[in-house]
Amino acid sequence: MNWDIKEIHNYNEYMQKYSIHSLLAKIFAQRKYNEQDVQGHTSKRLIYHDFSLFLDADLVLDRIQEALENDEKICIYGDYDCDGILSTAILVQAFLELGKKVGYHIPNRFEDGYGLNKERVQQMYEKGYSLLITVDNGIKAYEAIDLANELGIDVIVIDHHDYDELPDACAIIHTKMSPDYPFKEICGGFLAYKLASSLLGKHDKYLFSLAAITTISDMMPLVDENKSLVSRGLQFMNEEKYLQLELLIGENQKYNTTTLGFNIAPKINSFGRLPELVNPNHLVRYFLKDVDQKFAIQISQYAKKINSKRQSLTNEQYKNILENSQKDEFLYSYDQEVHEGIVGLIAGKYTHEFQKPSFVMKYDEKNEVYRGSARSIESIPLNQIFDDLKDYFVQYGGHALAGGFQVAKDEVLTLKETLHTYLTTHTFSNEKVLEGIQIELNELTLPAVKELELLEPYGQCNEEMKFVLKDITNFTSRVLSDGKHLRFDIPLNKGNLQALYFNCSNEIEQLQQKKTISLIGTLKINKYLNTESINMIIEDMK
After folding, report:
1. Running DSSP on this structure, what letter comes out for residue 18?
2. How do residues 179-234 score in pLDDT, each as one tens digit?
3. In terms of Cα–Cα distance, which of 214, 260, 266, 269 is closest to 237?
4. Which residue range(s) make up the domain with 116?
5. If you average pLDDT over every residue of the chain, what do you get?
6. Is 370 helix (H, G, I), strand (E, B) or coil?
7. Under 8 Å between Cβ of 351 and 375
8. Number of neighbours of residue 5 by Cβ within 10 angstroms
9. Distance CA 446, CA 360 (A)
10. Are 345 and 314 in contact (CB under 8 A)?
11. Position 370 in a domain
């Protein structure tokens, strides 16, 4: 595996200006952080940008206040993923606390598709709704919003997705159309929380925690106010032990970004992926504060069963697709049996395993198109593929690593051939490169490594930094767990560094013969019997 070793020279000014150790200073220098960036990590102050900074903030609050005063029927229209479901629950709960019971709808991904549609607008008109609030969708619902306007329904759009032009809505809450809003990358759940908090005139620990989950599930950058949100939200979750979250996280689990992203969010998402098994609208009721305990237990059990079904279905169909697909520079599956709700999971599984692009589709007989999901790697940007080959797609969208698309029935084979030519004639590398900052052993002190905890929680755009130690000659090694793992003990000025290399049984004999080693990995503080020591978790060594 190749290493990209960063030698940082301009870190002393960070050390002097912010009174920090060299390890943290080198990270700030590598990332070219300005003072605001540094304060975002080192200050204990909550970073939170007020709802009033949105361009249409007053319009939204005035229209909602009018609806409350006139006892109008209000409906919250969400989305079928974790962000959309929790966004809806946040607003439904906020209105309940204002004494208003509102309607809500989580669309079925197969019957409704993504976003607000004309059929649902017509239904809401027939049911007497006069105010519709979309959350985590709506910014591209041009036709549905035009129909709502014709029928006398006002639509407030709360969304964070990209747009080409704005719909003709009553009001829109979106960071990128609000020049005074300083941080642009927040998800639907955080937008919904900001509206809820503004309506209630206060912060709410539980709703704040739900917004933190959506920020992790939607893989938003963990910087600026997102980092504050997740950090404080995790604190609240660990302190308050909310029933709805306790039932989903599993026994003896602590709330952190990993358990939010891999324990809780997938269970919520599974309702939207397999709506034929249980209606995802039940989850909105589940996340309300006054949920009946028996109902909560029942829904949480459904969530575990459905998620288990989703996992087994994904593994089963992934295996079948692999067995029936030709070996190529990419995966292109359009004629294999696959559940539309898991095409993205199958694509992601392939790309993660083989470090190659993937395109997985399900045929939509009604519209005579193939609907698919695609995944790629950093060196082969998916959005570049879409843009370069746009004439072959009915529709597409996404970013460098993930996206969705539609292909006409009579173009599906042509696209496969075109992709093959494109990916074999362009120069790409799918070899993984480990990036790390070079450090010296004398920089490794307990205070310096502890200081790295200021960067937590780690996530998108705030990944845990790897460090490189080169040409170490003074060390001893020890085999652990019957030959599965290897530990190196390296003397420091005070104490030892324990460098742990997990699951290296095939290399142990060769590694133990080395007289000089170089390591790349992450640094941790290990606590055992009230004693603290420095650990390095090795990702690779030479």
Report:
1. H
2. 999 999 999 999 999 999 999 999 999 999 999 999 999 989 999 999 999 999 99
3. 260
4. 49-303
5. 93
6. strand
7. yes
8. 15
9. 48
10. yes
11. yes
Quote the CA–CA distance of 78 and 268 in Å, as a whole number. 14
Q: Which of 423, 452, 480 is the last residue of a domain?
A: 423
Greatest CA separation for the chain: 80
Q: CATH number of the domain at 515, please.
A: 2.40.50.460
Q: Domain boundary at 240, 273, 303, which?
A: 303
Residue 430 has pLDDT above 80, yes or no: no
- State the CB neighbour count (10 A cutoff) for residue 165: 8
Contacts of 158 (CB under 8 A, 6+ apart): 87, 133, 134, 135, 136, 138, 172, 173, 174, 188, 191, 192, 195
Are 90 and 189 a contacting pair, CB within 8 Å? yes
Partners of 139 in beta bridges: none
Backbone angles phi, psi at 135, to 5 degrees: -130, 135
**246 and 340 both lie in a single domain:** no
Contact, 204 vs 210, CB < 8 A?
no
Q: Assess contact for 193 and 211: CB atoms under 8 A.
A: yes
Domain count across the chain? 3
Residue 492: burial class (beta carbons within 10 Å; 0-12, 13-18, 19+)? middle
Higher-scoring residue by pLDDT: 102, 275 = 102
First CA to last CA across the chain, in angstroms? 10
DSSP element (H, E) containing 119: helix 118-126
Strands 74-77 and 103-105, by their bridges, are: parallel
Q: Cβ neighbours of residue 274 under 8 Å, at least 6 residues apart? A: 306, 309, 310, 313, 339, 341
Cα R_g (the chain), whole angstroms? 26
Give me the sign of the Cα torsion angle 438, 464, 486, 528: positive
**Tokens linked to 374:** 């695609």
Residues 227 and 339 in one domain: no
Whether the Cβ atoms of residue 94 and residue 66 lie closer than 8 Å to each other:
no
Give the pair of three-digit tokens for residue 399: 């970013």
Which of 42, 36, 46 lies closest to 21, judged by CA?
42
Question: What is the distance of C-alpha 393 from the center of its chain?
Answer: 26
Contact 490, 472 (CB under 8 A): yes
| Spatial separation of the C-alpha atoms in residues 117 and 110, rounded to whole Å | 13
- pTM of the complete model: 0.89
